[in-house]
UniProtKB/TrEMBL annotation:
It comes from Brassica campestris. It is a multi-pass membrane protein. Its main location: endoplasmic reticulum. It is found in: Endoplasmic reticulum; Membrane. InterPro entries: C2_domain_sf, Ig_E-set, Sec63-dom. This is SEC63 domain-containing protein. One of its GO terms (cellular component) is endoplasmic reticulum. Residues 5-179 form the SEC63 domain. Keywords: Chaperone, Endoplasmic reticulum, Membrane, Transmembrane, Transmembrane helix. SMART domains: Sec63 (SM00973).
Length: 181
């Protein structure tokens, strides 16, 4: 009798995760899954049951959880699944960036270019923006946002600017690009 692993079994084996976890992912994930749904699916993995709780960690995790985009009602801070749910968003960007080039055919080498950027924070589940929790930083730490413009093909930095972002920001910068084509 010949035995062969199913596709999901091979994936689970390759990534060293349990078969039940990969089966759960395949049954719940779809192209319409939103970020919060993705987080719930990821953190429902049985592998998160093994996350240890270190002494004195509850207060730090609770402060970190208070600043997340998504929330539960009355979460149990010591539950490994709840903690992993709140720690996972750090792996995802908080802002969706899209861009539009207006008059791109008119941009030539040496010509001045106006860069206009509008940023808006996704405030879903939050009412205000405050200091971030930097667990090893001795005092309050404010967010640091940077607008970085570069050419990914040549790995050249075109502009960098520190941005103060509360809920919305609009930036305008005129640059003379000597390497644009």
């Amino acid at each position: 009798m010949d035995l062969s692993a199913l596709n999901l079994g091979m994936i689970a084996s390759y990534y060293c995760i349990s078969y039940t976890t990969i089966e759960r992912f395949s049954s719940l994930l779809s192209s319409k899954t939103k970020t919060k749904g993705l987080l719930e699916i990821l953190t429902s993995a049985s592998e998160y049951d093994m996350i240890p709780i270190r002494p004195g960690e509850e207060e730090r995790v609770q402060r970190l959880i208070n600043h997340q985009r998504f929330s539960f009602e009355n979460p149990n801070w010591t539950d490994p699944l709840v903690r992993s749910f709140y720690l996972q968003p750090d792996c995802f960007p908080n802002i969706d960036l899209s861009y539009e080039v207006v008059g791109g055919e008119e941009v030539t080498t040496g010509k001045e270019v106006t860069l206009q950027v509008m940023l808006e924070r996704d405030m879903e589940g939050r009412t205000e923006v405050g200091a971030v929790d930097a667990l090893r930083y001795p005092k309050k730490k404010e967010e640091g946002w940077w607008l970085v413009v570069g050419d990914t093909k040549t790995n050249q930095l075109v502009a960098i600017k520190r941005v103060s972002l509360q809920k919305k920001a609009k930036l305008k910068q005129e640059r003379s690009h000597t390497h644009c084509t």
